[in-house]
Each structure stands twice: as C-alpha cells, then as structure tokens.
Amino acid sequence: MAKQIKQIIVVVVSGFVSALLTCAAGAESGPLHDPSVFLFLGIVFALVFSTYAWFWEAVRSVWRITGFIGLTTAAFVIAFLVGAFEQHRIAQLTGISNPYMNGALLGGIVGTALVAIARCTFMVDGQNLKTLVVRIGIVSMVGSALGAVGVSLGPSLGAAIWHFLRLVRLIVPSPSSLGSPKAGEPELCAMFLIWQTCISPLLVLLFPRSPSSEQIPSPFTPQKTLSPLPVWKKLLVVVTFIFLAGFLVRSIRMERQTARPQVERGTVVAQAYA
Questions:
Q1: Which residue in 68, 76, 67, 71 sits closest to 26, CA to CA?
Q2: Rounded to an integer, what distance in angstroms lies between the CA atom of residue 241 and that of residue 94?
C-alpha cells in the first residue's frame, strides 16, 4: 500500500511538473511559442511521462518509449485541431460562447482517448480488450471535463500560474505585454495544469504496466520484462513520426505563406487547414 501511494505521488508530481514546463514552452518567450510548432506542445508531457515510465516502471524499450512519445505528441496536435475546427458546432450544442471551453470539451475527449491508447499500446501488457475500451471511454470523458474545468479557472488559477512562471524566469514577457499574459494564455495554463496533473495518475491506475502482477513497481528495481513489441506496433511508430514530420513541414510552410500579424497564438495552423 505504501509503495502504491508513493507511486501515485510520484506520477502526480511528474504531471504537475510537465504542466508547468508545457506552459513555459508555449509562452511568449518559450521555444514552442511560434504558431508553426505550437501544436507540438504535447511532446513536453510525453517526455516527462516517458521519463517516469522508464525509471519507475522500467519500461526500457526504445521502441515503446519512442512510440508513446510520438503518439502522445500526435494526440495533442489532433486534439487542438479538432477543438479549433468544431468549436462552433459545440457552441451550438452547449450554448457556451467561450471558444476555449468548447475546444477543451471536444478536444479533451479526442486527445485523452489517444493518449490512453498510446499508454495501452506501448506501456501495458496483458489487459483485456473489452476492459481497455471501457476504460479508454471513461478516461476520455474525464479528460474532457478536466480540460473544461481548467479553462474555467483560467482567470484565477491560470493567471497565478503565469505570474509564478514569470517570477521564476521560465516566462519572459515582452515589454509590450506590460507584464500581463496575452489573451488565452491563462486559460491554456490552467487547462494544462489541471489536465496533466490529474490524467497522469489515471493513466497509471486504469492502465497498469502489468495487470497480472500484484507487485507495485518501484524505481530502479528489476521488473518483469514486457513482451517484445509486435511488428505492427513498430510500423505504427514509423507512421506516427512520418505524420508528425509531414505536418510540421506543412505547418511551417503555411505559417510563412500567411505571415499575418496579430493572429491569435495556436490558431494559425488550424485556420490554414480549415
């Protein structure tokens, strides 16, 4: 029991840290601020969670880790695009005028489901297919709700996160911002914090590394080796990175062609594909 509690604490902290790093990476001075690469923010969560899995769960397969990173990064890209494309339709159904809220509701379902699939595909052995489908459905709905809650807390929690990151110099705002976050930044910060901090332990609890084993994983200790990765999963890894590379190249080209000033951060790529 003590090991399980310690494991959950570790994964919650890793989710919290990845959320802060995601906010910093996508902020005005961050390396992923540029609209052509902003949708690739999911790589931060993927790298931090993979680090947890490598050391704590002993998932030490390059193919498995690489596959999880690729599919999780693609999940964030697809979630952002789906949210941007369909927010108007969701607004008609929900009656909510906040575009970030509508985007989080639908994008949260799609993105969370894909991240859960990445966890099941590359970091889990021995789960029953029916159980996996049910749990993926549950966690995707929870992820949607977490995203919406995060957006609603943007003006309070999100702004506090932004100012904290500025205080520790992880965010360096431009002089023109007058020391305040730009439109949408607090909502995104709060959404990342709530979603990543809460989803990380759910991925571990609902999709344990070895369901057949009663032993709780411990860091730096030998674990039961995962089964060899099938060929079709290796092909999935290759296809995923081909998709990401192609999308990145096209996004950069679209950004150079549009080059419109004052376009809201993170929407250029979605508008180009609309």
A1: 76
A2: 35
CB 162 within 8 A of CB 17: no
User: Whole-angstrom Cα distance, residue 101 to residue 80?
Assistant: 12
Spatial contact of 111 and 81, defined as CB atoms under 8 Å apart: no
Helix (H, G, I), strand (E, B) or coil at 249: helix
Q: How does pLDDT run across 23-82, given as a tens digit for each residue? A: 999 887 677 777 778 889 999 999 999 999 999 998 999 999 999 999 999 999 999 999
CA distances from 248 to 14, 41, 164 (A): 27, 12, 31
- Give the whole-angstrom CA distance, residue 209 versus residue 57: 7
Q: Mean pLDDT across the stretch 189-196?
A: 96
Whole-angstrom CA distances from 10 to 44, 142, 144, 163, 246 are 17, 21, 23, 25, 35
